[in-house]
Write a structure and sequence with these properties.
Shape: elongated
Radius of gyration: 14 Å
Structural class: mainly beta
Strand content: over 45%
Number of strands: 8
């Protein structure tokens, strides 16, 4: 299934992000700092991904779970970096406004 843009924003500290979505959720994360940064995203459906993102670079974090759409997703966002600011766009197989896909 094609991915559609679902949401976007920025993170500058550890946080939790919750959203209804589809079977695939993909974050495109850009480090907008002039220093490299670390980023870890953990999903409530299992799976944790960690990356070192170079300055002004973009990396993907993709999570998948088979099931009915929409499903509830919760992500724990964390960093070990002192200087941390990233922007992100979220893409999903189901976005709000789409019909349920049992």
């Amino acid at each position: 299934m094609p991915l559609k843009k679902s949401d976007s924003g920025s993170w500058n500290s550890n946080t939790t992000y919750t959203r209804s979505g589809g079977m695939t959720m993909k974050f495109e994360v850009k480090n907008i700092n002039l220093l490299g940064t670390t980023l870890t995203i953990a999903s409530n459906h299992g799976g944790t991904q960690s990356r070192i993102i170079p300055p002004l670079s973009t990396m993907d974090f993709e999570f998948s779970k088979f099931g009915s759409e929409p499903m509830g997703w919760s992500f724990q966002i964390s960093t070990a970096s002192d200087a941390f600011i990233v922007t992100w766009e979220l893409y999903s197989t189901w976005i709000p406004g789409d019909p349920p896909n049992p």
